[in-house]
Fold this sequence. Notes:
Elements: H1 5-26, H2 43-62
Amino acid sequence: MSKPFKSYLREAIERVKGKRIEQLIAMGHTKMEDGRQLSELTVSELNHEYRCMKELRKKKVRA
């Protein structure tokens, strides 16, 4: 019997979260200012943090 759609969706979300967490760690970002671990964040929060870090890096390169 095949897995329910919900299960596939959960796996996809976890893969996206894992990839974004890996990218943030590679940028040197391991924890939020409020003390939360990256694994505690939602996909939206991780994406926001990633965009902010990328922007910060661009500004540092230009300076």
